[in-house]
Amino acid sequence: MARGDAPRDSYHLVGISFFILGLGTLLPWNFFITAIPYFQARLAGASNSTTRILSTNHTGPEDAFNFNNWVTLLSQLPLLLFTLLNSFLYQCVPEMVRILGSLLAILLLFALTAALVKVDMSPGPFFSITMASVCFINSFSAVLQGSLFGQLGTMPSTYSTLFLSGQGLAGIFAALAMLLSMASGMDAQTSALGYFITPCVGILMSIMCYLSLPHLKFARYYLANKPSQAQAQELETKAELLQSDENRIPNSPQKVALTLDLDLEKEPESEPDEPQKPGKPSVFVVFQKIWLTALCLVLVFTVTLSVFPAITAMVTSSTSPGKWSQFFNPICCFLLFNIMDWLGRSLTSYFLWPDEDSRLLPLLVCLRFLFVPLFMLCHVPQRSRLPTLFPQDAYFITFMLLFAISNGYLVSLTMCLAPRQVLPHEREVAGALMTFFLALGLSCGASLSFLFKALL
User: What is the pTM of this model?
Assistant: First the structure.
């Protein structure tokens, strides 16, 4: 909720800046996963001069390195680790250094990925360098996202929605770049080089937007009025969450709120001329209030990353070879997913349903587990155990529509509901904790993708 004395966001410049920053945080991840066929071809030993960046014939190069699984796992584990590590970085590294330094590091590492397009090397070293680059890029992305979510925790919830919408647009941006590369008719190296340079431009725009924030009155007002105690607590000792006794978790967040209200009523009244200041937010107390919402966020991403892109990228068209068969997976998997995911994230700008008191949210989240067997039973040629029960393209498209829009909406909904379940001075800590659980869900899903792919 905006403060009564807050200045206006002139021309929505702050909102646009956070939208572009959200775009920049997920550009590297999306450009890696949409180029899976390019990496698989390089790892199969194909020459750069003969391999197009996005040949969608999945019955072609065998995925001997399990690239799509490894790139997902090695993207999300560093994200989880460095989200925890950011607890200590917060106290010893200035915010501007963390955000700006992370953006510059991501830019340099992705420039290295683009440069490797022109370098011929054997599959083993290429795989090692690419995986190392993926690890470092996502480590910096974790620090970047944790710091930005910390800033968003002090601002109206609309800006969190804009940031998440920008992240959703990153996937659309990558999918369109992929399709343009396929349709360009350029030689393989030029096509691949142009594709990997594109996110570098997006990161540069993010850097410019971040540097502009201190010059905008609306941003200065909120960022300069961050509660110092909440600031010191952002991302602090998240290991407490892993060590907590389950018996200490209440049955509902409402019980915690009621307990806090009763405790406040028992406290002696403060002097009229001395306004009472909020106490130092406790990570565990905040966790008690938002644990169910955080669990829902974990489960949403667990389902999503367990099949996307490890399983969905393997689905091919059941029609005869042709233009539709060539463009089927880029359009129906990556582009369709990212458009519907972005739409789902944007819906929370208009309504939030179910609300934070409803038990319908966990039910909706658990129903998404049905997508795992549905995608595994689609038309995946490289299978040895499960049958194909949904061979027609229409089945996969329908599943992907529901899968993507539910992912975007539920992610944005849980991120918006969490700050509403805590006191105003605890919102920054709540935002930081939700970032940790977001990374936890991504890591769980990436780990499960190996199992589900092995069951095909």
Answer: 0.75
